[in-house]
Automatic annotation (TrEMBL):
SUPFAM superfamilies: ADP-ribosylation (SSF56399). The keyword Lyase does not apply. Keywords: NAD, Transferase. Belongs to the KptA/TPT1 family. It is an enzyme of class 2 (transferase). This is Probable RNA 2'-phosphotransferase. Its EC number is 2.7.1.-. Removes the 2'-phosphate from RNA via an intermediate in which the phosphate is ADP-ribosylated by NAD followed by a presumed transesterification to release the RNA and generate ADP-ribose 1''-2''-cyclic phosphate (APPR>P). May function as an ADP-ribosylase. InterPro entries: Ptrans_KptA/Tpt1 (IPR002745), RNA_2'-PTrans_C (IPR042081), RNA_2'-PTrans_KptA (IPR022928), RNA_2'-PTrans_N (IPR042080).
Amino acid sequence: MDYQNLSRTVSHALRHEPWLYELELDDAGWVPLTALLAALRVERREWRDLGLADLLEMIARSEKKRHEIDGDRIRAFYGHSLPGKLSKQQSAPPAWLYHGTSPEVAELIQREGLRPMGRQYVHLSVDTETAMQVGGRKAAAPVLLKVDATAAYAAGAAFYHGNEMVWLADEVQAEFIMLQAK
């Protein structure tokens, strides 16, 4: 195991771009260990069996103590470049938001809508590049979905400003989601 590389990736996920790993940090920067491990297992083939012991070893080997584990959660101590904390205040979203996913899941979403699927919120991107990067974690050839956020909001969907790259929603009905042409 390359613990230095693992530490760099964990730092990136917890300090800089958690939305790329579909992670939600709480107000103090904590994220569930299970969520981080699931994201890391998808990130690299050699990490498919990554476990808590590997994260503990990563922390123990680090010269600079960058991360801490408390019970069933982990966070980075410092160095966050995030524009702010994830806010849960409901607000009007931009006109269009995007969601990258696998072709199989895209078909289901177009029938049933976007739901959190075990998370607190649906993650939506403000740009197509970020959405495709997230979708690329789920499929070699991801599909881009375009959400008419203005219409969904007008119809009663709750949206929350996450940060400059991400919006969160409780759910989005299928009628407001369309396949984005490449």
